[in-house]
Specification:
There is one protein chain. This protein is 49% helix and 15% strand. It contains 34 helices and 24 strands. The strands form 6 sheets. A 9-stranded mixed beta sheet has the order 7-10-11-4-1-12-13-17-18, sandwiched between helices. A 6-stranded parallel beta sheet has the order 21-20-19-22-23-24, with helices on both faces. Bound molecules: ligand 26V.
Length: 815
């Protein structure tokens, strides 16, 4: 897309330089001699944007003439990171802009560093949405993403005395050149009030929602076809209070309206049940549906054509209210019959599940929901009633089954189970990796599989965009691959990487490959020096675990094994130490602000680092680093620099993982459990190129049971590590007591003790393998060579063909 867009503009360095200066002197109103890196960034961004906008409008214009079926990707999170480097690379103009900016006295890399991340997401789910938008655009699918334009993205993390502290991420401080306000698109969103029931002239009961308040939704658009809504006070509404002489109330209403899109909720995998979050969800789904319906209505088609024009993908349960809102629009406002409306709804929606963790399952309290959305509650109860009637017909006299499948959980107060609503309102439900998709069929959605049949439940293994995660993040490796394969077609057809397999046998190629890895490690070592003031050697094995901090991801097990390694080294003679493989263990990731145990894990990592890094008996044999404020831009430095990365969740808990794919694509090996996409990575790259350990998903229940009721003793090596912590080897042991308690026999839910011995062994295998650098480099090349499957292009194409039923629409270049 970007490539095509850029063609019309004059692309010589002079023109580019002029357009940069033009933006500095006019848009930014600064003198060209008074420019700093940041204003240079703004000017380059604005100039880049100019090249995109007119062409992009043309594309949309042509598309609206053809009016093909479109997909709408509803996601409460889009974790985009920076845009400029990516845009320039995709347009093929990075070098020319680099030259232009150099003539003005700037260095492109510094200018790129001035951009702030768009961090409107927590982790995997939000980054997946960003990768999918990249692939949808690259493959010319007619698609829109819909989300919220938060004023504050995911918090910034700083480490103070070893503890995580959170700071607001006010990313819009200096304007965002990558978005266009669409002030013409403004939609009124209602809340509260009551429902009026009347009989129409034919005696049919009609329901009308009489809202109690409303806010405005304003659209902004970015060049990746993402439309983000922000909330504003409704003028008419303020006026009422104002005219009543209640000036203060009118201002308060206005402030409350703006609150809705103020902040991204920073919990990943835990449900808090906050009213403001529910308001966000309704505000966003209602605005998006309004927009979708408005576009559909332009074509003057029948309502029954709606599912042939519109596919809506629900990214987790967060947008499930869209199902209810569409049913309400069709029944209450368009006056369709319930059954006709419901058929349209279920043909339109499809739902992606991203987790099986019970604490992440969204539920809303019925009283709170009723107060905010009274008509929607009635509709949910009706959906549930008709659904349970059909279940009862198919499986008569099974109260237990009806209770389990009900959209309403009979608790005090009653709860709406959003996952059940999403399954009932969709025609397809998918998991995000093969294991996970099978798991949801036998656990959380088992009853639904029995009722609907197997075909409704499918797998769509996640993917990542190679444009950002190899070409942009690892430019040297990208260039070497292009040289080796003879062209850069692999960027849009990742299976072509297979051609690299033969190169693993070429010693000269291996040398180039490993030289690039080392350069990337030097770059990361510099970042570690800058951010943590720790010196690490790029010749050591770089061992990396970066992801959200969560008990199921077992960063705790990793740091416990690091302590074990430390104790082992301390017990060695000088001669024994001479054969130890030096290792730098690098952690990064944010803990949800209210997740006490996760925050203690961060503290423990930092306390261990403080001791180990200063211990002369250890020297360079072991270093421990916690990189603060892990985000997309930091990932772009870390991922290419990894020798080994850790994907060590308890089997069956990590739905897919996507960083595993990023690391392996960049020639990093992984150590991991048989969980999520690790299993499929193993299938693709072969067991010689991956370090697998630990129990399997089907063994987990038995292991927990054995632990609980047969008192299986703690692993002895683990016991030794815990004793060391308790003796005060790393700060006051009282601090860590709550963390250590999670390992008490019978309570070790994530099976750290059960997997500990095999984890230590796998780590020893890593050390041994790394010693043979020639063999290691072959493994590294084969990793990259066999990762074609994990391109998000493949994922998106599967969704398009098997769920959305949409076709690509390459737009003609009118020259
Ligand atoms: C869940 C919740 C629950 C309610 C409150 C706020 C909130 C915010 C985010 C989430 C998302 C949790 C699910 C999630 O991120 N799953 C991850 O999805 C990745 C992409 O499919 C996948 O690779 C990871 O394995 C999975 O943990």
């Amino acid at each position: 897309l970007w490539e095509r867009l850029s063609k019309k503009e004059a692309n010589d360095v002079e023109t580019i330089e002029k357009s940069i200066v033009h933006h500095v002197t006019t848009t930014l109103a600064r003198a060209a001699y008074n420019m700093d890196n940041f204003s240079a960034y703004q000017a380059v961004a604005l100039s880049t944007r100019d090249r995109l906008i007119s062409r992009w409008n043309e594309t949309q214009g042509q598309l609206s003439k053809v009016d093909p079926k479109r997909v709408y990707y509803l996601s409460l999170e889009f974790l985009l990171g920076r845009s400029m480097d990516n845009a320039l690379l995709n347009m093929g103009l990075k070098d020319k802009y680099g030259e232009g900016i150099k003539r003005l006295g700037f260095n492109m890399e510094d200018v790129i560093e001035s951009e702030v991340d768009a961090a409107l997401g927590n982790g995997g789910l939000g980054r997946l949405a960003a990768c999918y938008m990249d692939s949808l655009a690259t493959l010319d699918y007619p698609a829109w993403g819909y989300g919220l334009r938060y004023n504050y993205g995911i918090f910034q993390q700083r480490i103070v005395d070893g503890y995580q502290t959170e700071y607001p991420d006010y990313w819009l401080n200096f304007d965002n050149p990558w978005e266009l306000p669409r002030l013409d698109i403004s939609i009124q969103i209602a809340f509260g009030g009551h429902v009026q029931t009347t009989q129409d002239e034919y005696g049919v009961t009609r329901h009308t929602w009489i809202p109690g308040s409303s806010v405005q939704a304003i659209a902004t658009e970015n060049c990746n076809n993402i439309r983000l809504w922000r909330s504003k006070p409704t003028k008419a509404f303020d006026l009422t209070s104002f005219n009543e002489g209640n000036y203060e109330k009118s201002v308060e209403d206005a402030t409350n309206a703006e609150k809705i899109t103020s902040v991204l909720y920073p919990n990943d995998n835990t449900m808090a049940g906050k009213e403001l979050r529910l308001k966000q969800q309704y505000f966003w789904t209602a605005a998006s549906l309004h927009d979708i319906v408005r576009r559909f209505k332009k074509s003057m088609r029948e309502w029954s054509d709606f599912p042939d024009q519109v596919a809506i993908q629900l990214n987790d349960t967060h947008p499930t209210l869209a199902i209810v809102e569409l049913q309400r629009l069709l029944v209450d406002e368009e006056l369709l019959s319930w059954d006709d409306a419901w058929e349209i709804v279920t043909k339109t929606f499809a739902f992606t599940n991203h987790t099986v963790l019970p604490e992440a399952m969204e539920k809303w309290s019925v009283p709170m929901f009723e107060y905010l959305l009274p008509r929607h509650l009635q509709i949910i109860f009706d959906i549930n009633l008709f659904f349970l009637q059909k279940v009862e017909k198919k499986f008569p006299n099974d109260r237990g089954l009806l209770n389990r499948m009900s959209i309403i959980e009979e608790a005090q107060p009653q709860q709406i189970r959003m996952a059940h609503l999403a399954v009932v309102g969709s025609h397809k439900v998918n998991g995000v990796a093969a294991l996970h998709s099978n798991l949801i069929k036998t656990t959380i959605f088992k009853d639904f599989v029995d009722y609907y049949g197997e075909d409704k439940f499918v797998n769509k293994t996640n993917g990542i965009t190679p444009r950002r995660w190899l070409h942009q993040a690892n430019p040297q490796l990208s260039a070497l691959i292009t040289e080796a394969l003879g062209n850069d077609k692999w960027l849009k057809n990742l299976s072509l990487l297979k051609g690299l397999n033969a190169k693993a046998e070429d010693a000269a190629f291996r040398k180039k490959w490993m030289t690039i890895k080392r350069a990337n490690k030097v770059r990361l070592a510099q970042l570690i020096k800058d951010r943590c003031d720790i010196d690490v050697s790029p010749d050591a094995l770089f061992d990396i675990q970066v992801k959200r901090i969560h008990e199921y991801k077992r960063q705790f097990m990793n740091i416990l094994a690091v302590i074990h390694r430390y104790r082992t080294i301390k017990s060695m003679t000088a001669a024994q130490k001479a054969s130890v493989q030096p290792r730098v263990v690098i952690f990064g990731g944010k803990a949800a602000p209210g997740y006490y145990i996760a925050k203690l894990v961060i503290k423990l990592i930092n306390s261990v680092a403080a001791v180990v890094n200063q211990d002369p008996a250890v020297g360079d044999l072991l270093k421990v680093v916690f990189v603060p404020d892990y985000n997309v831009s930091v990932a772009e430095i870390i991922v290419p620099a990894s020798d080994i990365s850790q994907h060590i969740s308890t089997a069956g808990t990590e739905a897919s993982g996507t960083s595993n794919m990023k690391f392996v694509l960049n020639g990093g090996l992984i150590i991991g459990t048989l969980d999520g996409a690790n299993i499929e990575i193993l299938e693709e790259i072969g067991e010689d190129n991956i370090f697998i350990f630990g129990c399997m998903a089907h063994e987990v229940e038995d292991l927990r049971h054995a632990q609980r009721y047969r008192g299986v003793p703690m692993d002895p090596a683990l016991q030794g590590v815990i004793s060391a912590i308790e003796r005060g080897t790393f700060e006051d042991p009282k601090i860590f007591q709550p963390l250590i308690s999670t390992l008490t026999v019978g309570k070790d839910f994530y099976l750290i003790s059960a997997d500990f011995a095999s984890y230590i062994t796998a780590n020893q295998q890593v050390d041994a393998a790394y010693k043979n650098q020639e063999e290691w480099s072959k493994k590294s090349i084969r990793c990259t060579a066999n990762m074609g499957k994990f391109s998000s292009d493949r994922s998106v194409k599967e969704y398009a063909d098997e769920i959305w039923n949409i076709k690509p629409y390459p737009v003609e270049d009118e020259g």
